[in-house]
């Protein structure tokens, strides 16, 4: 007679643990407001927004009327992160998200995307394309209001195949930027990390 009690206790404990680790996804309006916050004000209203349904699946929350695509924060992640990028980067970004969902490492994702570009699966932008981002510690997010304190800016300008020589930029990280990362790669980009913090209020 003891065995069923043990099984019930184990199952109850497992269910309780799952309940404690369940992720709560904010309403679409709050996700949209936070997602577009890294953009300059004139670009926010027209940006397309990808966010999360209640089951955690990435979905389109809003269609766009300009050239920017924003991705809402995933509450299951270790840090708060919202990003907006030029639509010419969308195939590259979507492929990265797909591979990440499959559990691929950063190195494996880079390898696959390099092969993708070389095979012509999708094209990288023919002109510079910008990415705007905010990062913040997960515990800086106010669960009740969605406000985030102390978010760090990171701006990126993709210039595929660019090098130190072609841009005059150093490949060594430079506080406040700019510096070039992944020179000579399809995803070569200029990094700019302003030394300032933001308060994001959805």
Could you spell the SSE succession in H and E letters?
Answer: HHHEEEEHHEEHEEE
Total DSSP E strands: 9
The helix tally amounts to 6
Low-confidence regions: 1-20
Q: Kindly, what is the distance between the CA atoms of the first and last residues, rounded to a whole number of angstroms? A: 55 Å
Class per helix and strand makeup: alpha+beta
Query: Rounded to an integer, what's the Rg over CA atoms?
Result: 20 Å
Count of domains: 1
Can you characterise this structure?
With 202 residues, the chain is α+β, with helices and mostly antiparallel strands. It has one domain. It has helices at residues 2-21, 28-35, 41-44, 90-101, 106-119, 164-167; strands at residues 48-52, 58-62, 68-71, 79-86, 129-137, 148-158, 179-181, 189-192, 197-200. Strands 1, 2, 3, 4, 5, 6, 7, 8 and 9 form a nine-stranded mixed β-sheet that branches. The longest helix is centred in the first third of the chain and has 20 residues, at 2-21. The relative contact order is 0.13. Residues 1-20 have low confidence and may be disordered.
């Amino acid at each position: 007679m003891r065995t069923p009690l043990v099984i019930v206790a184990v199952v109850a404990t497992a269910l309780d643990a799952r309940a404690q680790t369940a992720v709560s996804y904010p309403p679409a309006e709050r996700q949209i407001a936070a997602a577009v916050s890294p953009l300059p004000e004139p670009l926010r209203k027209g940006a397309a927004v990808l966010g999360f349904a209640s089951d955690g699946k990435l979905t389109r929350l809003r269609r766009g009327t300009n050239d920017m695509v924003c991705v809402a924060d995933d509450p299951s992640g270790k840090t708060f992160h919202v990003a907006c990028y030029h639509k010419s980067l969308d195939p590259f970004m979507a492929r990265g998200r797909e591979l990440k969902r499959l559990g691929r490492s950063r190195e494996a994702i880079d390898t696959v995307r390099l092969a993708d570009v070389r095979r012509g699966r999708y094209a990288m932008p023919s002109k510079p394309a910008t990415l705007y981002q905010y990062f913040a510690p997960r515990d800086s997010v106010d669960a009740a209001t969605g406000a985030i304190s102390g978010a760090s800016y990171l701006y990126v300008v993709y210039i595929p195949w660019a090098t130190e020589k072609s841009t005059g930029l150093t490949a060594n990280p430079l506080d406040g930027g700019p510096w070039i990362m992944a020179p000579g790669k399809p995803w070569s980009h200029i990094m700019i990390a302003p030394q300032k913090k933001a308060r994001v209020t959805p």
